[in-house]
């Protein structure tokens, strides 16, 4: 890799990081924002089934390996999963297939519908219930973030279409020799945009060339800030709980 290639990759990394930071939602705590009182509404059926599978299996005293060994028999050989695949299903790292869901329920000796109960209570620990609620809150945020990404995509398409329409407007203006004010404004904004892009490129290359500038160090600093901020918020939340609710 040449020095120029390394510099170009470095500039791209700085730009990517700055764009990510600039587009991120504000993480500052808002006193008017309540804790979500219905996170379960955002737990999809597949995630709920994975959560309940672990609880039911543990309650029945059945290991993942035992399920794997029973599957060929209860499915007439149509479903064969290794213990590691079942573990991934429980962690939500592998999607379910319908025939696998029926077969695993049969291997456990339960109805498949029990996998979709809104949070299994029998045999469910407080930690498991908390993890399910956290899953719901996380999925809600991820859905909202996906909506943000879709809005950006729609905006990018709209901006590109406006640029094409603007260039077509300029060509029409030139052919007709009409110095329309909107055409002149479009050309002026185009020049300003290109100049800004060039200046931004020069700024980023200047950052990359500084000996004291370290992208990875900035990322580590932000990660450490996140850890400390989370600890501060937990401490504040504990202090605000009624005394009987504070963890011993």
Structural account:
- The protein has 248 residues and is mainly α.
- Among the domains are: 39-127, 434 Repressor (Amino-terminal Domain) (Orthogonal Bundle); 214-248.
- The chain contains eight helices and no strands.
Structural class: mainly alpha
Order of helices and strands: HHHHHHHH
Low-confidence stretches: none
CATH fold topology of the domain at 39-127? 434 Repressor (Amino-terminal Domain)
Distance between the termini: 56 Å
The CATH class designation of the domain at 39-127 is Mainly Alpha
Topology (elements, then pairings):
Blueprint: H1 3-23, H2 45-60, H3 64-74, H4 83-90, H5 98-108, H6 126-176, H7 181-209, H8 215-240
Helix pairs in contact: 1-7, 3-4, 3-5
Can you give keywords for this protein?
single chain, mainly alpha, 434 Repressor (Amino-terminal Domain), 0% strand
Question: How would you summarize this macromolecular structure in one to three sentences?
Answer:
The protein has 248 residues and is mostly helical. The chain is 70% helix and 0% strand.
